[in-house]
Amino acid sequence: MLFLVVALLLFGVVLGAVAHAPLTFSVAASLVIALWLAVFAVRERHGRRRGTSAH
Predict the structure, then answer these.
(1) What phi and psi, each to the nearest 5 degrees, are found at residue 21?
(2) Do 8 and 15 touch, CB atoms closer than 8 A?
(3) Could you tell me if 47 and 53 are in contact, meaning their C-beta atoms sit under 8 angstroms apart?
(4) What angle do CA 48, 50, 52 make, to 5 degrees?
(5) Which residue in 3, 5, 26, 36 has a CA-CA distance of 20 to 30 Å to 13?
(6) DSSP string for 6-52
(7) Taking the CA atoms of the chain, what radius of gyration do you get in angstroms?
(8) pLDDT along the chain (55 residues), means of 10
(9) How much is the pLDDT for 47?
(10) What does the DSSP 8-state code read for residue 5?
(11) What pLDDT score does 4 carry?
């Protein structure tokens, strides 16, 4: 339950920061995050296909 409260609090802080940031900055940051997630997904899929784990 405490984890949920902390997660919602951080979500609110992030949304508040995005609301006050310029639109171009928000779009640029979201593109960087999307690219990072895409690279991570490709690396995970490639690692699972080879049968090796990075852990």
Answers:
(1) -85, 155
(2) no
(3) yes
(4) 70
(5) 36
(6) HHHHHHHHHHHHHHHS-HHHHHHHHHHHHHHHHHHHHHHHHHHHHT-
(7) 16
(8) 91 87 92 95 86 60
(9) 83
(10) H
(11) 92
